[in-house]
Fold:
Amino acid sequence: MIRQYELVERVKAYDPGADEEALNRAYVFAMKAHGAQTRASGDPYFSHPLEVAGILTNYRLDDASIITALLHDTLEDTEATSEDIAHLFGHDVAELVDGVTKLSQLELQSDATKQAENFRKLVLAMSRDIRVLLVKLADRLHNMRTLYHIARDDKRKRIARETMDIYAPLAARIGMHEIKDELEDLSFAELNADARDSVVNRLAFLRRRGGDLIGRVLDELRTVLAEAGVEADVSGREKLPYSIWRKMQRDDVGFEQLSDIMAFRVIVEDVGDCYAALGALHAAYPVVPGRFKDYISTPKPNGYRSLHTGVLGPDSQRIEMQIRTRDMHAVAERGVAAHWEYKQGPVAGRDGKQYRWLTELLDILDSAAGPDDFLEHTKLEMFQDQVFCFTPKGDVIALPRGATPIDFAYAVHSEVGDHTVGAKVNGRMGPLRTVLRNGDQVEILTSKNQSPSPEWEHIAVTGKARSRVRRFVRGERRQQYVSLGRQIVDKEFRREGVEVTEKALAAVRDRFRAGSTDELYARVGEGRVTGREVYAAVYPESRVKDRLGKVVKLATARRRGRRSEHAVPIRGLIPGMAVHFAKCCYPLPGDRIVGIVTTGKGVTIHTIDCDTLESFADTPERWLDVAWDTEVGEENQISRFKVVLLNEPGSLSNLATVISKNGANISNLKITHRNVDFFDMLVDVEVRDRRHFANLLAALRATPAINSVERARG
Ligand code: MN
Structure:
């Protein structure tokens, strides 16, 4: 275990301005917080955050990152709170620790390899500060190094799989190849131990057979370069078993040659020396065709720079070499961390904020623009306009920012979307218009009877959801128009004592520019053609009776207050499609009603005593005799009343109590006028039907705090 003073000294060695006191406090805080907890290995738990901090000192990270490493498991596993940390170490550290904790909670859910790409994006999106990702990678590295202590086979496998699929590629993306290689090889050992063993054995055999081949190659290379006057550091590194295995898989070959297992590296002072070394080596040995690559003049998108070449070297061994400067080497090994170090250069620390650019991811993106771009296609900001949510099974669904459960439902499956009735976000029922956030777990509740509502089009933001809802609504609306039109035509013909026939309509439909009978019905339902006109077309000799005849009839029905036998039942018509309930009188089942046809919009239903109807007196052709198909409502319908309430404590709560005791629900409430004694209000309530509403109004009138109650009409 690293000791307290050792850790502090390591940090001070590369950052003399580091906050020594805070590092000490973090060490003690984490040690106390984890107390007697132990790891699977039996070691004190505190050894883990300490090792993670130690790994990060190799990358020369700032004191806030090291402190975060020490504290990274305290929120999850101990009594410590985010407030404690903010209080003791500042908001910067508290936010970093929070970020790492959130990433750690993610890993509990992932098991699907197919989701890897989305999951990686989620991790990036949640690591708003790249230090969060760096601490997380170090955390994962130490957990992988100690993975074998975990007894449960399936748990080890899951962690290794996740490391291979999610974290190793993330390390590669930010250019941290050392960490990536080690993560991959440790995962490989867990996931395919037999394959790794065979690679390791084969490596041992090749090493024995070659004697000190590597020593001889290194000596010769050094001599060649020295004779050419190039000062260089030459080394050889055995490739890790996993990268050998991958090459074998990719190229479908075994490994025999030194070049298969070793990579030689020539480190020089400056770019000129790189080309000088290359020239010397190409002069001394035959070049293997196709192996030369110049990543100095054309760096890789993630900022990697080097010369690569392959030659038939000493003993006619094929060898591969990377030639680069010290700076390029640091970047190749340590990626983002090195970038920061070199970028800061000699001005580092002058304002005490030398790491500030690391704290804002967007800052990095700005500074990494151009050919020096370290973040390759990891344009992290790309994911800032996306959110990633989980299904209850742990699958990740990627959505644009602003997306709602409707979008989520359609992203899961169109069928799920079509039948959505509600959504639980993180276990709690939330409205469908809830804007989803990164990491939300969303459970969609469905019902076979549900179908998309026209409102959803405004709630959804994804093209998929919106177009699906729109298509459904359009189709449904047409169905509704057809069905309403059929009833209107049917009633009109019956009124004249005849049955309507398909054949009769087929003969006249062209006159209404309708391609089919259904289309003719739809045009009637939409209010573009009246039932009367259709009848007159079929029986031209009967002459259309004067239009007033119809009005007289309606007025009679109105006076009698009796349901006309020719009324169109609004059965099966969905409010908001072909029929609309007027927002002036709020008709309820049981009310006497009348329909007003609006061209292109179907029918609006008013109560027969609604004041608004006066304005349609001059257009009798728009009146339609309609009736409820049932006097007793099943579903909740909204109606409105005016109430005058005493202005005294408790009167509003009295009102609410009476409403709820009568099984109604307040859906809206507005104070329209108030003075010293009274206030006037408009209250919208959900009720079943006219009788239910009438009972409620009676109960309200009996309430002392209520001065008067009256149903709203127009
Ligand atoms: Mn940890």
Notes: DSSP finds 29 helices and 20 strands in the chain. The mean pLDDT is 82. The first helix runs from residue 4 to 14.
